Amino acid sequence: MKSIHNKSSFSQQIVILMTIFIDATGYAMIRPLISFYALSFNVGAFALGILMNMFALMQFIFSPILGRLSDKYGRRSLLLISISISSFSFLLFTIADSFWMLLLSRSISGMATEISIAQAYMADITTNEKRTAGLGKVRAAFSAGVIIGPSIGGFLSIFGYWVPGVLTIALTIINLIMVYFFLPETRVIVKDNKIQKSKTEGFIKNLKNAFKKPLIPSLLLIYFIVVLSFAAIPVLIPLFTIDFFYFDEIQLSFVFMFIGILQFITQGFFMGILSERMGEGKLIMVGIIFVFIGTLLMPIIPIVIAFYFFIALISTGSGFVRTSIPSLISKLSSEDEQGGFLGISQSVVSFAFIPGPLIAGYFYEFIAISAPFFFSAILLVASFILSLKIYFQLKKVIGLEK
Predict the structure, then answer these.
(1) Which one of 115, 169, 250, 349 is CB 3.0 to 4.6 Å from 154, fit for a cystine?
(2) Quick one: pLDDT at residue 379?
(3) Among 230, 270, 217, which Cα is nearest to 386's?
């Protein structure tokens, strides 16, 4: 299939952004509750790591599958299928009476990839000049849902975990109605199998070319390490705050709201200014330092005020790295390579979210509470050394740095 050349009206953008916002709100409502729900079944940190790991694994497997299917059969059709999958996963979450049913719920939830399909839809309905602005709106809508969702889920959990589960089901039904009645298809059939074959060959070629570039493999390695460290947060923060501060569901929801607000502000308002003044190379190094300080000191200074300060450092630093590296990769790529190379960087993110929670849960439960934090800190030292090397090479390659 290919995109329809006529670009959409403003109303179509509103519908797709509302779809993303509602989807993110439902996802964020139950995210802080999963740890408490799992612990209510008398499982430990390692089992919690498996729970988080399964979601990431399914995302890693099904995101490219649903993305390719949306190219072939249309964005609207796959959005409807993906939202239906989410709704079924929320139903299982609502009625879960064992850890295994909760695990099944998270596994099925990972099969849904509304965000990636919605991004492709936005790309279809925006011109090249408006493409970045449109995708920026997608990120903003998702961040807004992530900010609002935890407070709603935390409050409703007072009445039982099934209550926020029911509301998430209702939200997915609203999404289905909006997409079905108000979102037209943006793709038309292309009856030429050679086009699909050339796309596959292009992806393989991009993968090989990425590892031939002088800096991109190192950037991808840094990306993997930083995301691996940040991927442990959904496992470590609930356990850490329960063990040290005796946080309940509502208090933990505020922690995730705090993280969402910081990331929304950092990536939505400051990244453009900072990248112009400092350059991506410096931002990557500063981001790694922030994440390192927060990760290293959090178990050493278990005080609530310090905890929020360290979370702020980790969230902000991670935002610096996760925004700067894709931007730098795009600048290191030719126009016909950018899409393929950025797709590879997204695969690195998904892959990092698979072992991250599992390693964190295992270290926390079987070695020591501080072990996953110190392990991440060691990896971050290695990534900083690598980023320092990249910074001094940037001028020689393309003269990007100040």
Answers:
(1) 250
(2) 92
(3) 217
DSSP state, residue 215: S
* Cβ-proximal residues to 92 (8 Å cutoff; 6+ apart), any chain: 101, 102, 104, 105, 108
Domains contained in the chain, number: 2
Residue 211 pLDDT exceeds 90: no
> Three-state SS for 206?
helix
SS3 category, 214: coil
pTM here is 0.68
Contact, 268 vs 141, CB < 8 A?
A: no
Q: Are residues 82 and 221 in the same domain?
A: no
Residues 246 and 153 in one domain: no
Spatial contact of 291 and 235, defined as CB atoms under 8 Å apart: no
Confidence grade of residue 143 (pLDDT, cut at 50, 70, 90) = confident
- How many CB atoms neighbour CB 262 within 10 A? 20
Looking at residue 149, which CATH number applies to its domain?
A: 1.20.1250.20
Q: Which residues pair with residue 187 across a beta bridge?
A: 3
Query: Rounded distance, CA 316 to CA 190, Å?
Result: 44
SS3 396: helix
Same domain, yes or no, for 176 and 224?
Answer: no
At 291, the amino acid letter reads V
Highest mean pLDDT among 119-128, 187-196, 243-252, 289-298: 289-298
Tokens 């390659």, located at residue: 397
Partners of residue 188 on adjacent β-strands: 2
**pLDDT by residue (tens digit) across 84-117?**
999 999 999 999 888 999 999 989 988 887 777 7
Among 188, 223, 240, the domain-final residue is 188
Q: Are 114 and 24 part of one and the same domain?
A: yes
Tell me the Ramachandran region of residue 246: left when phi exceeds 0, alpha when psi lies from -120 to 50, beta otherwise: left
Residue type, 239: L
Question: Can you give the residue range of the structural domain that contains 84?
Answer: 1-188
111 three-state secondary structure: coil
C-alpha span between 256 and 48 (Å, rounded):
17
